[in-house]
Amino acid sequence: MKKTMLVASLAFCFLWAGSSNVIAQDNKSLWTTLAKVTFKKQYDEMLGFKVDVPIFSPEIKALEGKSVEIKGYIIPVEGYRGQKEFVFSAFPYNMCFFCGGAGPESVMEVVSKEPIKYTTEAITIKGKLDLNANDINRLMYGLTDAELVKSAK
Predict the structure, then answer these.
(1) 29 phi and psi angles, rounded to 5 deg
(2) pLDDT tens column, 114-143
(3) Do residues 148 and 84 make contact, with C-beta atoms less than 8 angstroms apart?
(4) For residue range 11-67, what is the model confidence (pLDDT) as tens digits?
(5) By the 8 A CB rule, do 139 and 107 touch?
(6) For residue 41, what is the DSSP state?
(7) Beta-carbon count within 10 A of 34 CB
(8) Which among 61, 75, 122, 127 counts the fewest CB atoms within 10 Å?
């Protein structure tokens, strides 16, 4: 996925502030599990100062590479390629991480198999959960091979 200046800027700005079975958790508990992350300060050679690096809980690590199902909102972010690559949030756009209403644990990068039509309503998707603790130009969580499970009513 091509990195964009917007994503790099957001990551810089906030500094981080398998199995074929789908892990069955309801929306609230999966986002709650993903929130079980702590951070440690670590010096970044490229940036020349300390950044917050995520430390994933054992519960989160157990989900890495697994297929999960999650409910949330598509966040329109310039630079993501149409409807196959987007940011997904536990909260609607006006309350999401990028607006300062939530933490970095409440968003993930999504790459879907097929385009998913943008809507302001909550949708449910499933895909393979990826964890990222090293690349500050990307979000902590990613969902690859994502598919729409349930669209907005």
Answers:
(1) -70, -35
(2) 999 888 899 999 999 999 999 988 999 999
(3) no
(4) 333 333 333 344 444 446 799 999 999 999 999 888 899 989 999 999 999 999 999
(5) yes
(6) E
(7) 24
(8) 61
